[in-house]
TrEMBL record:
Entry EC number(s): 5.4.4.2
Family: Belongs to the isochorismate synthase family.
Gene3D superfamilies attached to this UniProt entry: Anthranilate synthase
Keywords per UniProt: Isomerase
Protein name: isochorismate synthase
Any GO molecular function: isochorismate synthase activity
UniProt lineage: Bacteria, Bacillati, Actinomycetota, Actinomycetes, Micrococcales
Reactions performed catalytically: chorismate = isochorismate
TM spans (from-to): none
Chorismate-utilising enzyme C-terminal domain boundaries: 178-433
Amino acid sequence: MTASPGTPALRTLTTALDAAALGEYSATSPAELLRTDAFCWLRRGEGLLGFGEIASFSGTGPERFADAEEWWKQVLAQAQVQDPVRIPGTGALAFGSFAFSKTSSHPSVLVIPALVVGFRDGTAWLTQLTVDGTAPTSASAHALLCAALASGESAFQATGTTPEGASAGSLTSGALSEEEWKESVTAGVRAIAEGGLDKVVLARDVVATFAEPLRRVSILQRLTALYGECWTYGVRGLVGATPEILIKVDGTTAQARVLAGTLDREDEPAGSVDFAATVLGGSDKQRQEHDFAVRSLTRQLAPFATDLSFPAVPFILELPNVWHLASDVTAELAGIDGHLPTSLALVEALHPTAAVCGTPRDNAGKLILELEKMDRGPYAGPVGWLDGAGNGEWGIALRGAVLESPHQARLYAGAGIVEASDPEAELAETWAKFRPMLQALGLHG
Ligand SMILES: C=C(O[C@H]1C=CC=C(C(=O)O)[C@@H]1O)C(=O)O
């Protein structure tokens, strides 16, 4: 575990932002406040933006969640928090992204920003955070926001490729060619038929290269505009818009949105939700994929819950690119030894679900390492935020990319494989799941 600088002596001040104060920043939506390196967690015009970095945790391996939790606990133990607003997301806050695998060399991080702007249920707020001994004030917070909004400089420059610059980008295979990936799917189906496991989620990567520097802000803004129903995330180089929530903790209530089972909308441009319900709901293969994912989440969540519920039949989630079978799970959290679990403790208990790994989990994890021939990095790992009260929202980092350099993005997508899977159809499904990022990068019309 590394933490810099040591365990910071955090001071935070949250102030309510009224409509007039927001107007001063000439923004009509939170997405307009995005700047080059901003942390982003936005959905339907609400969420959190973070500016600057004042302290961070970075770790790898099987203890990455527990180490991050311990670091955050130490930060909070010394923190001086002034928070008259007191709703989830106010006060002390960190954004985070965790590697999918305990074997990944990709760092899992929690990052404390210098400034947070939050929007929730019609309330807006500004939190300034310091670790250098200075006491934040309302005036210094507003000055910091003005400075953050006035600057657009960063490693990923503010000028350069627009999403419309489709011709400037090219796409190449990552670890596996399409043919090789289909062979991996065939091997996955074989392993399932042989009885070693019931489901495995196999993913692949593609690399997008651009002559002009990428514009992180326009990528995120485009995702919020096109995929408003999804949670648009940005944590350092990781960007995307996920439709799946691993866990959201709001006081004593926890919620998850479990997805598995997919139909490409491009194949059925005239199709309706009813059509998707008939096709997805009527498919044993899709229902089986979905049931594994719901069961894996509810089994892991049950020890922390007094009251856990989800509908008997999944609903159809309609996104611009695909329809999914979806189940919203809710639970009332139970205290263990008198303590409610934090959102991060639940992330550790729940990750990875069968929506991104498989059933049984250990066998699927081993097969993923063997067949994908890549390090998933943060793809399919938890991404989101947590606050000092244990609240937080953690999505599964799907439909995203890692901006690896100013000119290169690596995109990831996967598909749930069961015994009835057809490699060609699963390959097509990955293209449907790449589409949000391809659109955001200007590589798809
Ligand atoms: C693994 C991915 O999607 C998961 C989430 C929803 C539906 C899925 C499916 O139908 O296979 C996957 O389980 C991905 O987007 O890369």
